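Sequence design from tokenized structure. All designs in this work follow the same two-part layout: the structure record, then the generated sequence. An example of the structure record is given first.
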């Protein structure tokens, strides 16, 4: 932790202020889960690129990422209040939510590819803006961007093969 991050460490009695951020990411995960009913069967039925991971891996990876996204949002809010950084955090969360119904519920793989590109284009500046406010929050978002970029490549491979 750098001296820049000291200001984002909450007072122990205020730890509960992280809850709305965790609720937000849990809601996105839950709604995505509803939209992805039958996703394992859909995923297995697709022609997949050779770098496609097994379907069971997505749940654990997204669970960890959602916690990191929630904590990052909380740290950013604690460090600077509600401003353009938080609006971008909210926008990327809504973009995250939009991908699953496009891909799994509607089978719109090309639209999902465009959408995930927009998501990556939102997360990258969020990390840059976060860096100025909380390096810890920025680092928490880096694995998310990496996974979204991987998901973009996977989505592109699926578009090409299907």
């Amino acid at each position: 932790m750098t001296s820049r991050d000291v200001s984002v460490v909450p007072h122990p009695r205020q730890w509960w202020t992280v809850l709305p951020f965790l609720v937000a990411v849990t809601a996105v995960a839950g709604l995505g889960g509803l939209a992805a009913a039958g996703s394992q069967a859909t995923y297995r039925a697709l022609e997949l690129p050779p770098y496609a991971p097994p379907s069971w891996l997505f749940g654990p990876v997204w669970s960890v990422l959602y916690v990191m996204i929630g904590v990052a949002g909380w740290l950013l809010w604690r460090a600077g209040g509600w401003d353009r950084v938080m609006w971008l955090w909210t926008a990327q969360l809504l973009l995250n939510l939009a991908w699953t119904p496009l891909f799994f519920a509607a089978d719109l793989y090309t639209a999902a590819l465009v959408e995930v590109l927009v998501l990556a284009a939102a997360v990258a500046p969020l990390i840059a803006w976060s860096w100025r406010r909380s390096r810890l929050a920025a680092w928490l978002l880096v694995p998310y961007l990496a996974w979204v970029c991987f998901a973009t490549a996977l989505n592109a491979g699926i578009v090409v093969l299907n």
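The radius of gyration is 17 Å. We note this feature because it recurs in several other targets discussed in the main text.
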